[in-house]
Amino acid sequence: MQDEVQLTSQDFDLGRVWNNRFANLGPAFFSARTPTPVREPYWVARSQSMARELGLEDDWWRSQEALEAFSGNRPLVGSRPLASVYSGHQFGVWAGQLGDGRAIMLGEVQASDGNSLELQLKGSGSTPYSRMGDGRAVLRSTIREFLCSEAMHALGIPSTRALCMTGSDQPVRRETLETAAVLARTAPSFIRFGHFEHFSHTEQHEELKKLTDFVIDGFYPECRDAPNPAAALLAAVTSRTAALMAGWQAVGFCHGVMNTDNMSILGLTLDYGPFQFMDGFDPNHIPNHTDTGGRYSYKRQPQVAYWNLFALGQALLPLIGEPDETMAALEPYKAIFPAAQDMRMAAKLGFTNSNEGTSALINDLLALMAKERTDYPIFWRRWAQHLAGQPVETVLDLFHDRPGIENCMQQLQELESKFGQQPNANLALGSSPAIVLRNHLAEQAIALANQKDFSMIQQLLDVLENPFSEHPNHTTWAGFPPDWASSIQISCSS
Ligand code: AMP
Ligand code: MG
């Protein structure tokens, strides 16, 4: 059915310089593959902030040609479309070869700052790595990825980005019949831990070295002159991943599918599937309905990241040489993650440094919140607003256990006297967002989109781009989730 639609022969010119460095790695790394056109595409949403970073003209999206290009129906001048091959561990089990089964990398576009950004179309048709899949993505999951990529970036948490998404009424079969969408997403690189695992497990050690050199030269040049560059790379990735985990935990983000093929070598949040920003605080929260064992629950994310780094270390072992050096490169995780986490949480309290006092207060607050399933984003925002002068009752009223929260407030005062300074309200307000992309907000935008009303997606994007500001016109979006939010089930199906 998809093949009925003809690829438009005349190319679309984005007006940017393309550097297709990944494509120069050679055929072991990818299969050349052009997107499969969709029927009668239409615009769903665009990120002007991403467009500006790419250096696109303000009216970049206005033409029919642009619409066709970003839905995969028209080639882009200078692009060199391909699907890359990778492997990975899924739910802790070696899954063998995976690869870009429904994403096609168009190439690397030179952004306005001179750096290159890879541009991918996700949901743009099957590739040699599609296995049993149809190569498509549905409207529902594409809206979630589009919004969350931009929201994470605005939260200051490293992430792949989204430029735009288009839809088509072409049917896509999941549990029910849905419709297709194509996401144009960007990142300096979409290389995953799984790319390294692929060349290691298949004993293609020359390619493994080539990939490692490519990543070091392009993204970790400081590792080049280290005595053991591959070990230095592992240590650098370990450090970035630890920082990423601290960012996720502090904001209450659950990824949902932390398989090694969804782990970015650049420490970016990658592949938004059954993710969730927690509502009521529950350390054991599992966002993914399919994850019955809770392997990827909120509290396990930092450990899982370490497990994944270990898998990366094993993959790099043929280059590193010594198991001891591999372990030494991973070891700093155990100090970097907790330190980064303590800093993030201390900042939410309003302090620039963490110490025994801030750690004890955080532990007590989180224990209290876990006991009462206190709304995580609202608690922290109200805490910050209290520091900025709002009455303390706005915080106290969130708890049944009044003595418990009053005891925490007492601890805050003791910290103030110990530090000899007031907590910094602006630091706290800049660390605890007023709005995050909760599941029910995405669901509302999706329900409207299913009726061809895409306005809420764009309005949500506007608000999520400034998550640390109050949005008086959208107070309900910043408020408590409705009762039905807890019954939303998000699975791997996308
Ligand atoms: P994910 O669970 O989304 O990280 O995907 C795991 C693997 O399955 C990757 O190789 C994806 O490209 C592939 N995949 C997921 N959905 C599809 C689909 N609808 N068609 C083809 N490949 C898919
Ligand atoms: Mg994936």
**What is the percentage of strand-forming residues?**
5-15%
Summed over residues and divided by their number, the pLDDT gives a mean of 96
Gyration radius (Cα, Å) is: 23 Å
Spans of at least 5 consecutive residues with low confidence? none
Helix tally equals 17
Q: Compute the number of structural domains.
A: 3
How far apart the termini lie comes to 20 Å
| Bound molecule types | adenosine monophosphate, magnesium ion
Show the helix and strand layout.
Blueprint: E1 30-32, E2 42-46, H1 48-53, H2 64-70, E3 82-84, E4 87-90, E5 93-97, E6 103-110, E7 116-122, E8 137-138, H3 139-154, E9 161-173, E10 177-187, H4 193-201, H5 205-219, H6 229-251, E11 253-254, E12 276-277, H7 301-320, H8 323-330, H9 333-349, H10 356-372, H11 376-387, H12 393-396, H13 402-419, H14 425-429, H15 439-450, H16 455-464, H17 475-478
Antiparallel strand pairs: 1-3, 2-9, 4-5, 6-7, 7-10, 8-10, 9-10, 11-12
Helix pairs in contact: 3-15, 3-16, 4-5, 4-7, 6-7, 6-8, 6-9, 7-8, 10-13, 15-16
Bound molecules: adenosine monophosphate and magnesium ion (MG).
